[in-house]
Design goal:
Length: 329
């Protein structure tokens, strides 16, 4: 485990397994420290866990329809981990690998991974670097970089589950969420994008004004029935570059989380299938809706939708993305 601590004593714990976030301990409105990240009691539980808790999935986060894509006229068949698609880079994706610690200090950790040509079906040898920086303002910056020696695709994110009242406090459906997004990606019942970018106007997908996560989660709306809650991707508003994507808050603890990114989209997953997950740090199993993941990323299934922002990485280029989790109370 890797331990980062700032001047106030707030801390972050990381694991080399999936370059994952194990804990984030920050004060509530009364100055009482608490761990606001879902995680497991045993480090071994992070291997091949269904929730992908805290980790960096890849090479391609989210879904690729049919487990296939065409690049420069050549079809590539990926290793599927679901009948109709590949999810989070396949059964042995980046989230299940042991990354290497290339550098560490009290407030920063550099983790690297080398993915060989043909890995899970992806072309090209890829080198990946994840830099976590924990600052005195209780912001955790994740800088993601990747290079390749052959044309390939890449989509990296972080899959941390947040509960601002504490990882052992139960449901997050009372948390308030705001998304700076006026469009979302319509999907099939398998959560594969159809290609349509729909307006959130007049739908349960509208978080432009902050509202409780649970307010509309049981609405009679196809997307919410497909995933038993929110498991959808929103197109972030604003020009390219670093911007505020999401704001999460809890009236109980007074904690607030801002999520900043230069990624074009954010997948919000409300922990709809957390029942049966490995034993938690507090000694019990998590239940559905005990945490929410805000996964800043490229568009799901982008390789099969030329109209989506490109996820292609070529030799001589560097994939570079930033996600910032800023906490306060």
């Amino acid at each position: 485990m890797i331990h980062l601590i700032n001047k106030s004593g707030a801390s972050v714990m990381l694991t080399e397994r999936g370059a994952g976030v194990v804990s984030v301990v920050v004060p509530d409105r009364n100055g009482i420290m608490g761990d606001v990240v879902l995680g497991y009691r045993d480090e071994e539980s992070y291997l091949a866990d269904g929730p992908c808790a805290g980790k960096i999935p890849g090479r391609f986060a989210n879904r690729i329809d049919g487990g296939r894509f065409v690049l420069d006229g050549k079809e590539h068949l990926l290793v599927r981990n679901n009948p109709g698609y590949q999810l989070h880079g396949g059964p042995d994706g980046f989230s299940n690998r042991l990354w290497k610690t290339a550098g560490i200090s009290d407030t920063e950790a550099v983790l690297t991974l080398d993915s060989p040509d043909g890995d899970q079906g992806y072309p090209g040898n890829m080198h990946v670097e994840a830099v976590y920086t924990w600052r005195d303002d209780n912001s955790l910056t994740l800088s993601l970089k990747a290079t390749t020696d052959a044309p390939t695709i890449v989509n990296l994110t972080n899959h941390t589950y947040w509960n601002l009242d504490g990882e052992d406090s139960g449901s997050v459906l009372g948390h308030t969420l705001k998304l700076n997004a006026s469009r979302w990606l319509v999907t099939t019942d398998a959560l594969i994008p159809t290609g349509e970018l729909a307006s959130v106007d007049g739908t349960p997908m509208d978080f432009r004004t902050a509202k409780p996560i649970g307010r509309d989660i049981k609405a009679d709306f196809p997307a919410l029935k497909y995933g038993k809650g929110y498991d959808n991707c929103w197109v972030l508003d604003g020009a390219p570059g670093l911007k505020l994507a999401a704001e999460l808050s809890s009236a109980v603890s007074g904690r607030r989380l801002e999520v900043w990114t230069d990624q074009p989209a954010a997948q919000v997953y409300t922990g709809n299938w957390l029942d049966g997950s490995p034993v938690s740090k507090s000694g019990r199993s998590y239940h559905d809706y005990d945490g929410v993941a805000i996964e800043c990323q490229g568009f799901p299934d982008a390789p099969n939708h030329p109209e989506f922002p490109s996820c292609v990485l070529r030799p001589g280029e560097t994939y570079s993305r930033t996600i910032i989790f800023r906490l306060n109370a």
